[in-house]
Amino acid sequence: MERYICAIVLILAAMVIALRNLSKSYETAEGRLEVLRGIDLDLGAGDSVALTGESGSGKSTLLHLVAGLDRPDSGEIVIGGRDISKLDDRGRAGYRRTEVGLVFQQFNLVPSLDVAANIAFHAKLAGRHDPAWENELVERLGIGTLLTRYPEQLSSGQQQRVAIGRTLAARPGLVLADEPTGNLDEANGDAVLELMLSLSKGTGSTLLMATHSRRLADWLDRQVHLRSGKIT
Amino acid sequence: MSVRSIAFALAVMTMASLSGSQAASEGFAGLGSAAEGFSVPQPGLLFRFPADHGPHPDFRIEWWYLTANLEAPDGTRYGAQWTLFRSALAPREASGWSSPQLWMGHAAVTTSGDHFVAERISRGGVGQAGVVAEPFSAWIDDWQMKGLAAPGSDQLADLNVTAAAKDFGYELRLSATGPLVPHGDNGYSVKSAKGQASYYYSQPFYAVTGSLALPTGNVAVTGKAWLDREWSSQPLAEDQTGWDWFSLHLDTGEKLMGFRLRDAGEGFTSATWITAEGRPEPLPAGALQIVPVRTAKVAGRRIPVAWNVRIPSRGFDVTTTPLNDQAWMSTSTPYWEGPISFGGNVGGRGYLEMTGY
Amino acid sequence: MTTWTVATALLSHWRRRPLQFGALLSGLALATALWSGVQAINAEARASYTRAAVVLDQNGLANLVSSNGSSVPQSAFVRLRRAGWNVSPVVEGDYRFGTTRLRVIGIEPLTMPAEAQTIDLGNAGDLLSFISPPGTLVVSAGTAEKIRGQTDLALRVSDRMLDGAAFVDIGLAQRLLRRDGELSRIVVAENQRSGLEPLEKLVPTLSVREPNAETDVEHLTESFHLNLTAFGLLAFAVGLFIVYSTIGLAFEQRRPTFRTLRCLGVSLRVLAVLLLAELVLFALAAGAVGVAIGYLVASLLLPGVAATLEGLYGASVPGTLSLRPEWWVSGFAIAVAGTLVSSAQSLLRLTRVPLLAAAQPQTWGRSWQAGRRFQVLAAAALLALSGALLLWAEGLEAGFGVLGCLLLGASLLLPTVLSGFLTVMQRTSSRALVTWFWADARQQLPGLSLALMALLLALAANVGVGTMVSSFRLTFVGWLDQRLAAELYVAARNEGEADRLRTWLATKVESVLPISSVDAEIRGQPMQIFGVVDDPTYRKHWPLIVGLPDVWDRVASGQGVLVNEQFWRRDRLRIGDQLDLASDWKSTVVGVYSDYGNPKGQVIAGINALTSRYPQVSRLRYGLRIQPDQVADLRSRLSDEFGLPPDNVVDQAALKEQSRRIFDRTFLVTGALNIFTLGVAALAMFSSLLTLSEMRLPQLAPVWAMGITRRDLALLELLRTLVLWLVTFIAALPLGLALAWVLLAVVNVEAFGWRLPMHIFPYEWVRLGLVVLAAAVVSVFIPLRRLAGLAPSDLLKVFANER
């Protein structure tokens, strides 16, 4: 456990992302399914980009590749100057731990930890535990009364707020969000998204968010549209 | 059920002499023919008393066989039987459990409506059963035939006979009013045309007083009794299947002992006419003729219970009637044994025994 | 939709989850196996006791025995017969055929009451050869095998006969046993005619021993069988934990199927009946396998059990098993009953939960946690009850009650203790991953606690029984050293030889200790009275528990006697109590000695006091004190001078060795059952972990996403399992020791009549710990491999798909 916690990155820098000719396919029962077919994409430091497209257009897969959760069949994912697709399992785990913040549609939280521990969890893993910053996040997210609760005792909206807190508490250079408000009603979703955007702007993180909603995509700096695994 | 089977074995060996049953001819050591080291009766021997009242262990089988025709003061008729069989596995005697002598007792009381039976089996050598010639005593367990006569006098002249079982018992006092009677040739009694024989004598002259213990209560009785003594080693011929045996007290004071051994043909009959004074007059083979006149269903089989008994040479012709058709001895080897009365040209009472049916 | 289609839909669940199916069936089968195995052993043993009682002792009939322990004269039998009593003589004793010692029972078949004639002596011809010279031995097939060629007597095999015993004719028995004209007892038939003279008048020196409803052996071995049954039940309970958790999960996982079926118009009743039928079908299938394995287990264990019963109680049990309906039917019954009990909750929930409630496999077991307060209360009540029983109740059942309450209470407490421990560990850790490690362990607790409770039971039983056996062994070996003080033991073959032996030995050994004993009935119990000479050997070595300071002087002078511990405890004797040893012999208890391995009471008196009351007592056996280096020499001289066979001269070392061997064999079975139980507990753990591993993905995926590799996650899983096992193991130690204490100080006293000091054997714990470690690794292996082999896409599905 030592090695995770001791990997301290002192200087936070927003990430520059360059994706080159990225392809990914899966074996399915119906045969080979080409999910991404030669994606090229550049994100500047501090950019916030919305990834839009129909269901099955490859948004999630692209996000997973950038997060280092999975490896591409071919192409490069250069982030902060190195190609993470060349990293092994351990290297990619270290990259996720220290440089990436993830917000998914659901199951973002560690069910065995209460809200306070969840918020501190990633920050501690990344070696950037900062109680003052976490307190500020808790206050701005309005989850101060939930700190001793467990994830299963929270509503979906509350869970997503905690997930955002958990992500931003670690001050990641890159925040990746996959339909973060997909399970929420519109009002609640808008509020959560607004918070996420303003907080990630505050930390200077680069943000890549997958959404199928044009309306939400408009809130971000830029939009990239995917169709059948290609950027259009 | 080993008791049953040993009793059966014992009974078969003993009753083989009476019945020549199937088991015997199939071979309890070929009992019917060979004697296997046992002594064999020879003609010309004279009985020596009291020694011959006692057991003869070198002979295979022997019995002390008492039948009594009794009557209560109210005239109700009864029959009583007390029998002790001896059967030897080997022709010797030894003390303790190694004795090869086996003993079996049968006791019965017959009324017109009931027939009570009991059986006892015992090993010899330890004192549980046995016979002593003088002072005379024959016993098995608590059943006893005890001589009361003074030493030196006829040991069978006065007897006290007791038997007891769960549902009946009796105590009889016997006094002989006549002498002992040898059958056949001075006690050598031939049993077949092939020469099988036994030693055989009787005391047919007992006057009886005593009491019967029955489920309905005790009954004082008086009457007449007949004791048979017989021993042998090879008493039956192979083809003999059973016998019908009569002991008759004639109203004239005379007695008749007669039997027929059945075989595939006419059978072999033998009889002794006994005068009122006790003189035996052995009759030649074939002199006695018996013919069934009525059969009854007894214990699942047909048995001739009434007989016409004739001795043409003596002008004797009677028909017997049983006191109880169902006088069935349901012992290890079952047989019919019961009191009878008879009428014809002379009346009287007696006992009938039938085996092998 | 036909019922069959519905059934197919329900059953398809198991086809997709073969491991779960396997866990269910094997858990049930194993549980049934141990239960029916133990039942099979018990049934076999009980049958043989009954057989022994009926066959050998004419149990159920009264017997006339000598009032003063001497033999019964044969004349008494004849007197009774001639008085009209329906009685039969028996003479019995031990006789050696070659190297095989047999219990020879001489009977008289003609008078033996029909109700006591259980051995078929065959047809009339066989019967005549039974009673005629040379004679026939009626023996079991096993015994016949042993003594064939060792005797000229004819052998007749009866399948109703017991090993180690022979029926012979009474005359032959008297000859073999040299007891001409003597009887051991007289059997009195139930069927007697009325008006008989009373027995006390006919045979005043004999007394009537009334038939026992329960045989001596049955009474003595009761504790042993209770012990086995307890083990069987424990194993079964442990097995049920598996069944319970598997069925619970399967129901939860099939909830969507149930929902769909209900929506398609299948009534709740049809669904419930089908599920019930499915369970009963599984139970019967597993029951069949279980009974088969049980038969195997029992056949493997039975020789050991037979040896144990023989060694401990002298009870003869055959080493081969027969298929008795009383145990295989009970095996099926308990399999079905167990399945229904463990599925009752799930079935009930099926009928209660609304049609469209969402499936929640990940929170399955959570409701159980809510009941933890109740568990703690129940545990406290059980522990209190255990204490109360210990203080105030009496008897073997109470002893086992103490054990049961203690074990159940402690295991109910385990989840709370574990949860407390994990909470403390979580609180005291600051690093994120460490905190998560403990927190996650705690979260898994509801799903694992049943298996952990099973494990606790199995481990505690292991530690407890192990400690008991080892303590017993240590004490026993020390006691043997004291008890077998003489260097050489010699037995003469007859009194004349004994006289010559005494004279010859007088000048050659330091002292000659006669070993004389008579059988007597004291305070209504059959026991032996030994006579001892006044010798320093006894003063120095005899293992006294309590005694007056001048105890040996009093024994030597005939003023007092010693009693063994079991007699002392059973009858609550005190020093100074008066004992009626025979009709004309009273004496005072002056001391108590330990006497392990003897089920019966025993009294030691001065030799003079004994021989004056029993002049006919046999004086054939002696203990000899000599220098140890002279043993071999004296041995060979004894054999040269007297021609004594080797069996008649036994040295101390051989005797001790034999005793130890019997002891070790005695507890072989216990050890084997221990291992089996542990095996079932390991399987319970395995199936629970397997169950949990299916629900682990949502718990592990976020941690993985935040940068912990799958390999590290798997390692942590392993570590977590090991920690849980370890904590349970540590918790099992004090519980096991408490168990051992109850066994030694309560159950043993009730069962055997002796109390043993407790010793601690940490080395055995280490060994057990290693076994446990191995089992833990095995149990976690498959679930772990599954986890380590997960593809990222499997983990990613957690975040995206509606599950």
Q: What's the short story on this structure?
A:
The complex is a heterotrimer of chains A (232), B (357) and C (803). Chain A is of the alpha/beta class.
Could you characterize the architecture of this molecule?
- The complex is a heterotrimer of chains A (232), B (357) and C (803).
- Chain A is an alpha/beta fold and 232 residues long.
- Helix content of chain A is 36%, strand content 26%.
- Chain A has a single domain (2-231), classed as Rossmann fold (3-Layer(aba) Sandwich), CATH 3.40.50.
- Chain A has 8 helices and 10 strands.
- In chain A, strand 1 (17-28) and strand 2 (31-43) form a beta hairpin.
- In chain A, helix 4 (115-126) runs parallel beside helix 6, helix 5 (131-141) packs antiparallel against helix 6 and helix 6 (156-169) runs parallel beside helix 7 (186-203).
- In chain A, 49% of the residues are buried.
- In chain B, 7% of the residues lie in helices and 52% in strands.
- Chain B has helices at residues 2-19, 22-27, and strands at 61-71, 77-88, 101-110, 115-123, 129-132, 137-140, 143-147, 158-164, 169-176, 181-182, 188-190, 197-214, 217-232, 242-250, 255-262, 268-274, 280-283, 289-298, 301-311, 316-322, 328-329, 335-344, 348-354.
- In chain B, strands 1, 2, 3, 4, 5, 6, 7, 8, 9, 10, 11, 12 and 13 form a 13-stranded antiparallel sheet that branches.
- The radius of gyration of chain B is 19 Å and the shape is globular.
- Mean pLDDT of chain B is 88; it is low at 1-34.
- Chain C is of the alpha+beta class.
- Chain C has 27 helices and 20 strands.
- Classes of the chains: A alpha/beta (232), B mainly beta (357), C alpha+beta (803).
- Chain C: Its main location: membrane.
- Chain C: Residues 230-353, 674-790 form the ABC3 transporter permease C-terminal domain.
